[in-house]
């Protein structure tokens, strides 16, 4: 009797379930696909215009890569079934919008670029939402990191001649990632998202987490190296400007130079103790701080270290030690270092330029002209070198060559009070000789 009751109950339950299933709405996939395909061309047009706009408005030192795509219908349809209600699916006559129907990926070289791109997007477009994916992950989890920005479609990106009405809620998703984040996302998409079976066993999950951690660490290390380079470049630029300022003060013809003596950068601490890079940064730091003897001592330590540094390192160190000697008014030592710098790299036209400045300060204008000429043979497009050779020609009484060099320097864009003053003096000399 119990068995008969159980069979009856199962049959009755199946009948009820069958009747219930008959009332469930089943979306018309072909109808939805036809609508989606109808919008494909205009979506592609909009996407192309937004990408062009991004290329114009995103400004980074390291040029980013752009990838754009329209969601395939199969992916679009699968997501519709997950996120849309039966009522929404029944409205298949119009395009059912998802936030990622059209998307553009901005792939950057360094972590520091992500916030820069995000800010530039906010300043350029009407942003609807910003999501920092991966921030909630703990160190045991694996998952891709990315910044997702939803923007409203700009009016100038909507084709005016389109016969298809664009839904008001259509948006474009802009993903911002580093190169390594993008690489991980692509692999993860294949292994996990698109696969029917995700890795459940702990060893495989640990391997995935390890790979993700390795890529994240690589991004961090790349950024640290970038930060170090920025600090080093900042110190070098200040060192160069200080050298030019002193040289201009010593060789000035009349008016004050426009270099900003108060220009300063944030002082930095050494990056990794005990390495050549660390010593270079420390030397530049001491140099810029005015501790010239300490700077020269560190430069010398690098130059005399074992094994002997590579030629590029020797070139840079001799050049900067020469600048330190120059700042101490030890012009003979400075000249020797600038020459040695050039000997280690025959393409280093700047060291010859610096040597020419020293010769000019010492009053040896003929030798200065010779060295400036050698520098211009390596790189003929040096406006300041042409100006200083013009000044040397002026002091030797060769006013015609001085005017030629001065004119060439002005053609290359050099236009300041000093060039104008020299031009005026040359004109006066020509008038006197008429």
Question: What's this, in brief?
Answer:
This protein is an alpha+beta fold. The chain has 16 helices and five strands. The longest helix has about 50 residues, at about 200-250.
Q: Any chance you could write out the topology, listing elements then pairs?
A:
Blueprint: H1 2-22, H2 29-57, E1 65-70, H3 73-83, H4 86-89, E2 102-108, H5 111-124, E3 127-133, E4 146-152, E5 171-178, H6 179-193, H7 202-251, H8 276-288, H9 292-303, H10 311-327, H11 331-344, H12 349-361, H13 365-378, H14 383-395, H15 399-411, H16 417-433
Parallel strand pairs: 2-5
Antiparallel strand pairs: 1-2, 3-4, 4-5
Helix pairs in contact: 7-8, 7-10, 8-9, 9-10, 10-11, 11-12, 12-13, 12-14, 13-14, 14-15, 15-16
Share of β-strand residues: 5-15%
Number of contiguous helices:
16
Order of helices and strands: HHEHHEHEEEHHHHHHHHHHH
Please tally the β strands and state the result.
5
Helical content stands at: 55-70%
The gross shape turns out to be elongated
Distance between the termini: 135 Å
For the report, how would you describe the main beta sheet? 5 strands, mixed
Mean pLDDT: 81
Structural class: alpha+beta
Low-confidence stretches: 1-9, 15-22, 253-274
Order of the strands making up the biggest sheet: 1-2-5-4-3
Radius of gyration: 34 Å
């Amino acid at each position: 009797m119990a068995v008969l009751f159980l069979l009856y109950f199962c049959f009755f339950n199946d009948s009820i379930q069958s009747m219930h299933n008959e009332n469930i709405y089943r979306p018309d996939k072909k109808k939805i696909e036809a609508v989606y395909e109808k919008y494909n061309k205009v979506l592609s047009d909009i996407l192309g215009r937004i990408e062009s706009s991004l290329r114009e408005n995103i400004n980074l030192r390291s040029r980013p890569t752009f990838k754009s795509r329209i969601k395939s219908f199969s992916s679009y349809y699968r997501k519709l079934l997950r996120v849309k209600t039966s009522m929404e699916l029944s409205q298949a006559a119009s395009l059912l919008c998802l936030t990622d129907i059209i998307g553009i990926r901005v792939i950057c070289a360094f972590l520091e670029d992500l916030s820069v791109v995000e800010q530039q997007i906010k300043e350029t477009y009407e942003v609807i939402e910003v999501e920092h994916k991966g921030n909630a992950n703990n160190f045991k989890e694996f998952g891709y990191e990315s910044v997702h920005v939803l923007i409203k479609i700009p009016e100038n990106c909507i084709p005016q001649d389109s016969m298809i009405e664009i839904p008001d809620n259509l948006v474009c998703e802009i993903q911002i990632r580093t190169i390594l984040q993008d690489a991980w996302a692509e692999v993860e998409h294949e292994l996990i998202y698109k696969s029917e079976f995700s890795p459940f066993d702990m060893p495989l999950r640990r391997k995935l987490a390890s790979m993700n951690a390795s890529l994240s660490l690589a991004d961090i290390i790349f950024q640290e190296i970038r930060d170090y380079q920025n600090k080093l470049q900042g110190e070098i630029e200040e060192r160069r400007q200080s050298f030019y300022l002193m040289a201009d003060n010593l060789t000035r013809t009349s008016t004050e130079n426009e270099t900003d003596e108060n220009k300063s950068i944030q002082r930095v601490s050494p990056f990794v103790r005990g390495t050549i890079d660390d010593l270079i940064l420390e030397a530049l730091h001491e140099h810029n701080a005015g501790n010239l003897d300490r700077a020269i001592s560190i430069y010398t330590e690098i130059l005399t270290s074992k094994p002997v540094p590579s030629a590029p390192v020797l070139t840079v160190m001799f050049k900067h030690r020469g600048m330190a000697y120059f700042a101490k008014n030890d012009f003979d030592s400075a000249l020797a270092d600038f020459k040695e710098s050039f000997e280690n790299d025959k393409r280093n036209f700047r060291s010859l330029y610096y040597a020419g400045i020293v010769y000019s300060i010492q009053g040896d204008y003929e030798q200065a002209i010779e060295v400036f000429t050698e520098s211009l043979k390596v790189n003929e497009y040096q406006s300041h070198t042409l100006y200083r050779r013009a000044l040397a020609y002026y002091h030797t009484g060769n006013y015609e060559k001085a005017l030629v060099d001065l004119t060439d320097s002005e053609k290359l864009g050099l236009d300041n009070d000093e060039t104008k003053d020299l031009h005026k003096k040359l004109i006066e000399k020509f008038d006197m000789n008429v």
